[in-house]
Amino acid sequence: MSRSFSSLPAELVRSVVSNIDSNDTLCNVARTSHALHDIAIPFLYDHIALYDQEGGTRCFQFKKLRPLTLFLLNRPDLARLVHHFTMRHEPSTGYFTKKRLEKGEPVYRLKVDGIFKDAIKAASHDEEEEKQWLQHMKWPDHGDATLALLLPVLPNLKSLDLMLMSGCTYLDRMMRRVAMREKPFDKEPGFLALKDVMHTYCDEKYGMDVKYIGMFMRLPSIRRIFGHRMGSDDGVDGQADETLAALVTASSTVSHIELKDCKLHKRDLANMLRAPKALKTFIYEAGCGCLSECGMNFRAAVSALAPQVDYLEHLWLDFEHRYRPTWDDMIDDTTPIHSFTEFENLKVLKVAVVFIFGNEEFSSSQYEDWRQKKAYGLTGKFPRSLETLHLLHCEDNFELVLLSLEDMLEHKERDAPRLSKLVLEGPMLKEREWWNRTVHVARIGKAKGIDMITVNTAGELSGYDGALERGWGMDREICWAEGVNSRNKYPPDEIVELQSGALGLDV
Q: Alpha-carbon distance 157 to 160, whole Å?
C-alpha cells in the first residue's frame, strides 16, 4: 500500500526538509499543504541572505531589501523565525541621489508606506531626525536607512554577517543605541540572542574604523566577533576609539575575537582586550598599507592580553600575507615578544616568526652569542601547557628558526612537556638549502614525540592559478559568506613531504 509524503511522521518529514538548500524548493514545499507549510516555513526564514546582483550601478542596489523589510515589519511572527542574516555588497547610502540633487537634476522618489513611517517615528529621538529619515527612505539608493529598520525587528537573530562601508549613518546610529540601551532599545533591548558577528569592509585599499567591535562587545549574548579590514586612528598611538575606550573591564561575554587584515594601535588593543570576562581565542592578523597608518607594536599585542592570561587557550599573531609589511622605525616598534609563558592555559600558538625574532636579519655565526644572552631564540618562550606550535612566515630568519628549534627541542621535557605538534610554514620549495637542516630538526622532534609538518605557501607551485576564500577560526573551519574583494583569498597551501621534498595533499 503506497503512502503519500505528507502522511509520513512529522519528524521524518522535518528531517528531509531540513536538508533542502534551495529557497525555491522550500517555497514549493510550503505551498503543497498546510502541514508541509508549517514544517517548511521555519527553514525558509532561518537564514536570509541578500546579495547585490546588479553587477553595475548601485542606484537600485538590493531590490529585495525594501520589500523584505516592509514584509517583516508587517509579519513579526515570521521575523521571529530569522536566526541568520547575511548581506553582500555594502548597503548604499544615497550617493547618486545626493549628487543629482546637488546638480539640480530630477530624482526618482519612492512612496513611504505607513508602517515605515510608524517604525521611523518609534525609533527617532526628535522630529528633525524623523524628518530626515523619512526623506532618505524616499531615495531608491539609500539601503542604509532601510537596513537600520530591518535588523532590530529580528529578535531571535543568532548570527549577523555584514559588509559595510564608511558613511552608514543609520546603521551606525542604530547599533550604538542598541549597545548603549538608548531609545527605543531602553524598553525593548535589541539583539538579545545574537552570538556571532562578522563585519567586513568592501574596499580593497582602505579600511573601516574599529567602532563596531566595541558596539558588538556590549551585546548580552555575544560569543564570537570576526572583523576584516579594520584600522585604528592614524599615528604612533592615535586617538583611542570612543566605543572601545568606554568598555568596562570584564564586562563582555565574548570568548573569540578574530581580526584579519586589521591594524590596531596599542591603546585600542588594550581597551578591547580588557573587556572580555574570559577570552579563549584571539586571532590578530596585522594589515598594512592604506588600511591604517597607526603604529604596530609587537609586544603591545601580547601585553594587551594580560587580563586574559588565565583564560586564553588559542592565540594567533600574524600579518597579512598578500602584501608583506614594510616596518617603519618612526611609528612601528618591532621589539621581539619576550615570552608567552604567562599564558598558563595556552594550548595552541600560531605566530609569525618576526614577532619572536624581530625585524632583523640574523646569521648562524651570531646565534651562539644571542643564545648565551637568551635575548633571542625559542627556548623558554612558551608555557608548559602548549600542545601545538605553528611558526608562520619562516622565510624570515629561517636559519635562526631552525637553530632555535634545535635548542628548544633539546629542552622539551623541561619547557614544553605537552608539545606534540610542530608546524613550519613558508615558501618551502623555494629554499632547497633549508631541507637538510629541516629534516634534522624533524628527526629530533620525532624522537621527542613531536609530529612535525611543513607547509608550502608559495602557491604557484601547485599549478593552481586561482585563489580560494580562506576560512576562519584557528583551523579555518568556520565559514562566512565570500567577500566581494580579493583580500581574503589566497592560493592553496600544501603539505610538503620532508624526506623527498615532494608535494603532498592540499590543506
A: 7
Q: Which of 255, 251, 231, 252 is nearest to 241 (CA)?
A: 231
How far is 144 from 274, CA to CA, in rounded Å? 32
b/e burial code for range 339-351 (CB count within 10 A of at least 16 → b): ebbebeebbbbbb
Which sign does the torsion angle of CA 292, 294, 295, 297 carry?
negative
Distances (CA, A) of 358 to 48, 64, 372: 46, 51, 18
**Per-residue cell: 189:** 533591548
At 369, phi and psi to the nearest 5? -65, -45
SS3 string of 153-181?
Answer: HCCCCCEEEEEECCCCHHHHHHHHHHHHC
- Cα–Cα distances in angstroms (integers) from residue 21 to residues 8, 40, 83, 239, 430, in the given order: 21, 12, 16, 46, 43
For residues 423 and 455, the answer to whether their CB atoms sit within 8 Å is yes
- Asked, as a colleague might, if the bond just before 89 is cis with ω within 30 of 0, I would say yes
Neighbours of 291 (CB within 10 A): 25
How many residues would you count in the chain? 507
User: 3-class secondary structure for 339-392?
Assistant: CCCCCCCCCEEEEEHHHHHCCCCCCHHHHHHHHHHCCCCCCCCCCCCCCEEEEE
User: By the 8 A CB rule, do 487 and 322 touch?
Assistant: yes
3-state secondary structure (DSSP) of residue 424: strand
Query: What single letter denotes the amino acid at residue 380?
Result: G
Q: What is the mean pLDDT of the chain?
A: 85
Q: Is the pLDDT of residue 184 over 90?
A: yes
Q: Which residue has the cell 594587551?
A: 304
Inter-residue contact 301 to 269 (CB < 8 Å): yes
Confidence of residue 493 (pLDDT cuts 50, 70, 90): confident
Instruction: Give the helix/strand (H/E) hosting 197.
Output: strand 196-201
Three-state DSSP class for 414?
helix
Please indicate whether residue 255 or residue 493 has the higher confidence score (pLDDT). 255
Integer Cα distance of 357 and 141 in angstroms = 50
Question: Any idea what the Cα angle at residue 32 is, between residues 27 and 36, rounded to 5°?
Answer: 80
Q: Do 306 and 338 contact (CB within 8 A), yes or no?
A: no
Q: Decide if pLDDT at 501 tops 60.
A: no
- Phi first, then psi: give them for residue 373, nearest 5 degrees: -80, -15
